[in-house]
Amino acid sequence: MITLLTKITIMKKHILSAVMLLLSLGCFAQVQEPETEDLTGPTTLQKNHNELSGLDARNGGFGIKGGLNLANVYGDDTDALNPGSLTSFHAGIYAQFALAEKFSLQVEGLYSRKGYEAEMDNRFDYLELPLLAVYNITDNFSLHLGPQVSVMIAAKQDGHEINMENLNTFDYGLAGGAEVRFRMMRVGARYNLGFAGLLDDGDTGLPVGNELMHNVAQLYVGVGF
After folding, report:
1. How far apart are CA 212 and CA 214, in angstroms?
2. 54: left (phi over 0), alpha (psi -120 to 50) or beta
3. Cβ distance 192 to 67 under 8 Å?
4. Are 181 and 58 in contact (CB under 8 A)?
5. Diameter over CA atoms, the chain
6. Rounded CA separation 67/213 (Å)
7. 0.85 exceeded by the pTM?
8. Would you say 155 and 191 are in contact if contact means Cβ atoms under 8 Å apart?
């Protein structure tokens, strides 16, 4: 258990460092994009509408994203398993809907590979649907937090297919992180914590019981349209 807590603490420290870096970048971007006042320009109502929609909107739009997964598992069964992190990937699309000047709702559809290493690579591919509340601290820096659900579509051990009949193919959990935006580009860090046990009762070929859940640290880039 101490080893598991140490690993989760280290992973959280990595995410915190990435968030602090993103915050610094966000403040820098904010300084680099000063606001200007055009006395003959659009009305306040028009400006508010433009801020909440379109390419230059800080909390609206849609696009594509993808990046790195540092995946592992946690739970009672990790004491004997002693799993190591699996480096993998995620990719997909997102849509962000403005609710107010600083708040928005973001929904994503992702293909995400999770798993762990324990003598062999254990990989589990999911279709993932996060639903995130977004709070814009500045025009360029935001915090994300919300639930997500996932459905497993493939499972492999050292490249060989695993019988998914005895696997729990549905997962749910929480996702949270931070993001910096540079016009069309978005760069972010996120931590995902699954709450559903990975395994049902039965012989899956994996040397663990069902008290095994996913946790994933992510770094990503996105392009908005």
Report:
1. 7
2. left
3. no
4. yes
5. 72
6. 21
7. no
8. no
